[in-house]
């Protein structure tokens, strides 16, 4: 077998140019999702075997330009400028060539080995747009290959081009994009100087560096400053630029952009002829309903409601299956392992912990399916457009709503979804308020307490009220945070509304799977680790004396000849529960509960709730499970429900219940979510603040509710 | 802004200087300011207090100085007046750059908005119709009446126009320019979002949404016809 040579191919293009679809069409399922180093921008890699080569594809972030204003642009620019790719494939949307060619002009300047993939060619033909390929190739100085990622046409030809360009079998005459005369003169002068520096001009295209120096680009300056030629440039450059600016009567960067746009427009006009002009397109028709003044907002709310309905109703069924699967798994493992610490660790710690989180997978898959569908049809951008005004008022961005909606499902993917927000302040502020959106794991707690302390007729309204309360706290917090610590300019809202397209099932499923996979990976690592920690805290140290004492008691009951077998078993079970509860009290979790009792007393909580809340740091539904264990204390052995037990406990009343609901709603999300927050936020300081903020908010509001409740309820 | 708040010429000079220093270094220190204005430290403190009283700057002694949003808007206004006057002197009256800059420095505090706009339009007019003749000045008059400078945010859904300039700097300007908003580009305002903001335009064959706030940075010329 021959050793394969590897060609690294970078895909560069505008957002919505179908770059990712093309990537999927070429690489299929050979996909690796990671992060670009140092930033929260996803990196997609894949490969395909073609002829004698292994072609490695790197999907660069979609950008409109490569001026390095955003992390995405910087990644794309550096990757190409530093010649990390052997061949660059510039993906352009054939139905929107004029705008797409602007990026092409910038890419060409970097002078890589490049081929233009004219994507969506099936639509181009359907719309009867005629493109003069020969002319376009001549103008761009780059081969242009028509492809359709959706119909999978032209892909062979594209790969063939990539290989031939790599082998230097295609050499295209490089016509450069010429700028205004004055600028060209300045470029020539700088370029002349740069070319005397052989190492530097070997690394970067000297013409590109010259243009970038004129644009005051940091990357270009840094590279130039590292080279000996800087000594001569240092004097020349400011002189040149001052005189150039006064001749142009505008900023140089401005003129450069204008010239590039003019080139793109010119190339478009010369090569593209369209049949229909000004005819109403499907997009116009849909938008006139979806963005209608009166219908826009109700439709948006309806679509969000629909996604929720689907997520929770359809998700319930497989969720049940998963729960039984994990219960079954726990039983089987229990049977295999000898009774003792190891079994408890594996069954009660690992399987129960991971199972609890993986149980949400169906919900999460459905939620992501819905969101991916809306995203790839083009509605998501419209939704941001519709709600932006309201979100802007509270200091957030239209795009913040996607993560916030996701937060009703689970904070973990919601934090990850914040990546769409480019501005750091916007992103952190959104992440800070996501925990207040009541997540799925908090639902069992709400249901238990509402069911126990309020009449059934009111419970739905109270539950709804709890959700609204969370939203209100989120809104208030966003406003507060954006006007204090995350002050500063928000990201401008300048956003393309892409043409509506019916996505292929494959690409929607792929997007869904990528996100779900990231969630599962977290469950497999972070959540597993956290489950083990919480198990340790709840089970250690063990009080051996109690074990002996209860062991003796249970033995005594079993030996008792006066009672029936049934009564014996009941009493023994009660004693075992009592033992478990006492051990819990003795464990680190129990001690923590006692330790924090003075702090939670004003909220109406005793140490037992302290234990439950501490254990709830693992996952919110654990609060219910822990309460179940603790309240077994003093039980009669009859299987009295937790609801009934809470109701009969004198320490409880509706005020305590409400206070507890509010506290669980607002306090620090589970440790897994916190770990993800830390990963996405990237700073310990911010994570600590987030823990403090949520805890303080929970305490203050629970206090207020409890005190008010005591007075009125 | 100018009508609501009366600020002396020297205070305007201070706020202009702070604006420039903040632009270079993110925040200004009183020492930078004293150096730039060539005045004593004590007079700087006095001026800073007055500006802080008018809520144009954030200032506490021994701390850095930043502009409030109102202060920034005010400073941009002053700087624009300065630049318009200077360019007029250089481009139309053929005064050399340094002399023009100094003269502009003195005049910028007193010139009103109307006069300023007319100077800008006159400079434009000289470029578009360089031929003289007796109708020239009346030509200018009709040039002024024909198309008052508009902001994109002032257009209504259905209006068509052409981009004249993006009057902003930094990230917003770069974004707008990257999306194709350069001089001479035709566009059409399609609609406003249901809540009244942002707005949607059609430009260079695609649909673009932007907030009013951003649209205010773009000056346009309205085209007749729907």
Helical coverage of chain B, percent range: 40-55%
| SSE pattern of chain B, N- to C-terminal | HHHEEHHHHEEHEEEHE
The end-to-end span of chain A amounts to 81 Å
Tally of separate helices of chain B: 9
Broad structural category of chain B: alpha+beta
Secondary-structure content class of chain A: alpha/beta
The proportion of strand residues of chain B reads 15-25%
- Measured as a percent range, the helix fraction of chain A is 55-70%
Q: Quick one: biggest sheet of chain B?
A: 6 strands, antiparallel
Question: What form of chain B results from the Cα inertia axes?
Answer: globular
What value does the Rg of chain A take, in angstroms?
A: 31 Å
Count all strands of chain B and give the number. 8
Q: Strand fraction band of chain A?
A: 5-15%
What is the 3D form of chain A?
Answer: elongated
Number of strands of chain A: 10
Rg of chain B, please?
Answer: 20 Å
Mean pLDDT value of chain A: 84
Main β-sheet of chain A, in a few words? 7 strands, mixed
User: Quaternary status of these chains?
Assistant: heterodimer
What gap, in angstroms, lies between the N and C termini of chain B? 34 Å
SS field, number of helical segments of chain A: 32
List the topology elements.
The complex is a heterodimer of chains A (713) and B (226).
Chain A: E1 5-13, H1 19-27, E2 31-35, E3 42-50, E4 53-59, H2 71-81, E5 87-93, H3 97-109, E6 114-119, H4 121-126, E7 129-131, H5 133-140, E8 143-146, H6 155-166, H7 181-195, H8 198-203, H9 206-214, H10 218-225, H11 230-248, H12 252-271, E9 272-274, H13 282-290, H14 296-336, H15 341-358, H16 361-377, H17 379-393, H18 401-406, H19 411-417, H20 424-433, H21 443-453, H22 456-483, E10 494-496, H23 505-539, H24 544-559, H25 565-586, H26 588-600, H27 607-615, H28 621-630, H29 642-648, H30 654-666, H31 671-681, H32 684-712
Parallel strand pairs in A: 1-4, 1-5, 5-6, 6-8
Antiparallel strand pairs in A: 2-3, 3-4, 7-9
Helix pairs in contact in A: 3-12, 5-12, 7-9, 7-11, 9-10, 14-15, 14-16, 15-23, 16-23, 19-31, 20-22, 21-22, 21-29, 21-30, 23-31, 24-25, 25-26, 26-27, 27-28, 30-32, 31-32
Chain B: H1 9-25, H2 30-37, H3 41-53, E1 57-58, E2 66-67, H4 69-91, H5 97-107, H6 113-128, H7 136-146, E3 150-151, E4 160-166, H8 171-178, E5 186-192, E6 199-203, E7 206-210, H9 212-215, E8 218-223
Antiparallel strand pairs in B: 1-2, 3-8, 4-5, 4-8, 5-6, 6-7
């Amino acid at each position: 077998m021959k050793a394969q040579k590897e060609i690294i191919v970078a895909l560069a293009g505008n957002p919505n140019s179908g770059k990712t679809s093309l990537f999927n069409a070429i690489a299929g399922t050979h996909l690796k999702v990671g992060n670009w180093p140092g930033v929260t921008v996803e990196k997609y890699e894949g490969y395909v075997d073609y002829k004698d080569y292994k072609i490695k594809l790197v999907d660069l972030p979609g950008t409109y330009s490569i001026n390095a204003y955003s992390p995405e642009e910087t990644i794309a620019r550096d990757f190409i400028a530093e010649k990390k790719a052997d061949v660059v494939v510039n993906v352009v949307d054939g139905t929107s060539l004029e705008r797409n060619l602007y990026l092409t002009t910038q890419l060409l300047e970097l002078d890589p080995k490049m081929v233009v993939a004219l994507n969506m060619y099936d639509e181009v033909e359907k719309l009867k747009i005629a493109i003069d390929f020969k002319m376009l190739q001549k103008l761009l100085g780059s081969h242009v290959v028509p492809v359709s990622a959706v119909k999978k046409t032209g892909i062979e030809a594209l790969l063939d081009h990539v290989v031939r360009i790599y082998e230097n079998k295609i050499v295209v005459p490089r016509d450069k994009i010429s700028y205004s005369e004055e600028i060209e003169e300045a470029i020539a002068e700088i370029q002349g100087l740069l070319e005397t520096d052989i190492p530097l001009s070997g690394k970067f295209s000297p013409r590109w560096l010259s243009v970038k120096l004129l644009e005051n680009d940091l990357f270009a300056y840094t590279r130039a400053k590292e080279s000996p030629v800087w000594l001569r440039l240092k004097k020349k450059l400011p002189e040149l630029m001052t005189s150039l600016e006064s001749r142009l009567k505008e900023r140089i960067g401005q003129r450069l952009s204008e010239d590039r746009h003019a080139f793109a427009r010119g190339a478009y006009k010369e090569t593209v002829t369209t049949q229909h002009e000004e005819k109403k397109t499907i997009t116009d028709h849909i938008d006139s309903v979806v963005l209608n003044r009166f219908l826009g907002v109700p439709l948006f709310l309806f679509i969000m409601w629909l996604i929720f309905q689907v997520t929770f109703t359809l998700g319930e069924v497989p969720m049940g299956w998963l729960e039984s699967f994990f219960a079954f798994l726990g039983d089987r493992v229990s049977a295999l392992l000898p009774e003792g610490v190891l079994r408890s660790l594996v069954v009660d710690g690992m399987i129960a912990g991971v199972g609890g989180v993986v149980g949400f997978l169906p919900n999460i898959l459905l939620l992501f399916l819905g969101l991916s569908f809306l995203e790839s049809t083009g509605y998501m951008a419209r939704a941001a457009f519709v709600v932006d005004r309201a979100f802007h008022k509270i200091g957030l961005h239209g795009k913040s709503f996607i993560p916030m909606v996701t937060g009703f499902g689970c904070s973990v993917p919601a934090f990850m979804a914040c990546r769409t927000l480019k501005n750091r302040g916007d992103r952190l502020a959104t992440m800070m308020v996501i925990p207040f959106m009541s997540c799925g794991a908090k639902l069992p707690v709400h249901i238990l307490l509402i069911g126990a302390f309020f009449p059934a007729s009111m419970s739905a309204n109270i539950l709804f009220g709890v959700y609204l309360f969370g939203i209100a706290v989120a809104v208030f917090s966003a406003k507060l945070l954006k006007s204090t610590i995350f002050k500063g300019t928000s990201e401008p809202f300048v956003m393309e509304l892409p043409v509506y397209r019916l996505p292929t099932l494959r690409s929607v499923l792929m997007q869904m799977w990528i996100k779900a996979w990231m969630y599962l990976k977290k469950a497999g690592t972070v959540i597993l680790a956290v489950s083990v920690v919480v198990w340790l805290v709840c089970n250690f140290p063990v009080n051996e004396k109690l074990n002996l004492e209860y062991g003796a008691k249970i033995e005594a009951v079993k030996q008792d000849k006066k009672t029936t077998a049934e009564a014996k078993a009941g009493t023994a079970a009660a004693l075992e529960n009592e033992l478990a509860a006492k051990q819990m009290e003795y464990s680190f979790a129990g001690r923590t509960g006692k330790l924090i009792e003075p702090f939670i007393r004003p909220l109406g909580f005793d140490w037992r709730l302290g234990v439950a809340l501490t254990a709830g740091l693992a996952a919110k539904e654990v609060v219910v499970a822990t309460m179940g264990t603790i309240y077994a204390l003093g039980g009669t052995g009859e299987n009295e429900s937790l609801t009934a037990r809470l109701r009969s406990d004198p320490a409880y009343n509706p005020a305590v219940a409400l206070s507890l609901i509010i506290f669980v709603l607002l306090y620090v999300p589970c440790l897994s979510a916190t770990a993800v927050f830390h990963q996405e936020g990237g700073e310990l300081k911010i994570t600590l603040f987030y823990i403090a903020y949520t805890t303080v908010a929970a305490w203050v509001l629970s206090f207020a509710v409890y005190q008010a409740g005591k007075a009125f309820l | 802004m100018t009508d609501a708040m009366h600020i002396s010429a020297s205070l305007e000079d201070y706020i202009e200087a702070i604006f420039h220093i903040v632009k270079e270094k993110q925040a200004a220190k009183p020492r930078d300011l004293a150096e730039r204005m060539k005045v004593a430290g004590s007079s700087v403190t006095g001026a800073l207090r007055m500006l802080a009283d008018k809520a144009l700057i954030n200032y506490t002694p021994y701390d850095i100085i930043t502009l409030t949003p109102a202060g920034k808007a005010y400073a941009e206004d002053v700087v624009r007046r300065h630049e318009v006057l200077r360019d007029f002197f250089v481009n139309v009256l053929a005064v050399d750059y340094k002399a023009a800059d100094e003269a502009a420095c003195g005049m910028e505090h007193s010139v009103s908005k109307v006069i300023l706009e007319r100077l800008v339009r006159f400079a434009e007019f000289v470029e578009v119709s360089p031929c003289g003749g007796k109708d020239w000045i009346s030509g200018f008059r009709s040039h002024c009446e024909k198309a008052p400078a508009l902001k994109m945010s002032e257009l209504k859904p259905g209006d068509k126009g052409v981009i004249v300039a993006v009057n902003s700097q930094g990230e917003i300007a770069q974004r707008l320019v990257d999306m194709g908003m350069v001089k001479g580009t035709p566009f059409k305002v399609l609609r406003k979002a249901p809540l009244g903001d942002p707005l949607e335009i059609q430009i260079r064959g695609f649909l673009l949404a932007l907030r009013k706030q951003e649209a205010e940075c773009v000056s346009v010329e309205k085209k007749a016809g729907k």
